[in-house]
Design a protein that fits this description.
This protein has about 150 residues and is mainly beta. It contains one helix and eight strands. The protein starts with 6 loop residues before the first strand and ends in a 6-residue tail after the last strand.
Length: about 150
């Protein structure tokens, strides 16, 4: 079977005053597929992504949300959908990811549809099949918005 070399990563972040330890699986590269797990799941559910022949060599990122798997937060009661959106953006910023494709399962499928402040934005009927752009400009401050999959820098 085809395989992609991935490694375990440990990220230390601070989002809205909450200290986070985020456990992740990463196959580095341009425009990774970012997997967001659902309630009661972990990043390991996506670890076999690299084994699919059609996806061989594709960069990807999967991480545990706070309170799931190996990730922790100093204040779990702060975790909400808007918080998870801002946390996802912080993870991407720390890994210096500007462009990515997102797959969300269960509760995580709503994350691509939410702005960083928690207000819904325009999204496709199938948010998990959309690419999100994150141009780094002073005005956008690294925030994201759903765009067509063909959008490129």
């Amino acid at each position: 079977m085809a395989s992609t070399s991935w490694s375990k990563q440990s990220l230390e972040l601070r989002v809205h005053g909450v200290e986070l330890h985020i456990a992740a699986l990463l196959a580095a590269g341009s425009e990774p597929v970012v997997f967001l797990h659902g309630f009661g799941s972990t990043k390991e559910e996506y670890a076999d992504f690299a084994q699919f022949p059609g996806l061989a060599g594709r960069p990807f990122l999967a991480y545990d949300a706070p309170g799931f798997g190996e990730s922790t937060a100093t204040k779990l009661d702060a975790v909400s959908i808007p918080f998870l959106v801002d946390m996802a953006l912080a993870v991407l910023d720390q890994l210096d990811v500007d462009w990515f494709h997102v797959v969300g399962h269960s509760m995580a499928a709503s994350l691509p549809c939410c702005s960083p402040t928690g207000h819904p934005t325009a999204c496709s009927p199938s948010p998990t099949s959309r690419a999100m752009s994150r141009p780094r400009t002073a005005s956008s401050a690294g925030r994201s918005s759903p765009t067509a999959p063909t959008t490129r820098r």
